[in-house]
Amino acid sequence: MNLKYYASTSIGRSYFVSKSDFSHLFLSLVISLVGFGYFTYGKKQLETKFLVSGLVLMGFSYFVSPLWLAASLAGVIAAAPFFMT
Known about the structure:
Elements: E1 4-8, E2 14-18, H1 19-45, H2 48-60, H3 67-83
Antiparallel strand pairs: 1-2
């Protein structure tokens, strides 16, 4: 089932936006918010592993397209500071 949504531009033209575009946008937002939390924590506590992990989480979703790959990489990167010594 391929659902499509209409979105309009400021000049009145409309175009199709697929459901996966909204999913990718929402997932990227959530991953970036988690990354911002890690970055803020790492900056305040002077924890380099959380700081770097936060920067990576905030930026990598712009370069990874498949949702399953973005979610799995985010999980690995978010868990990495807890397993690093």
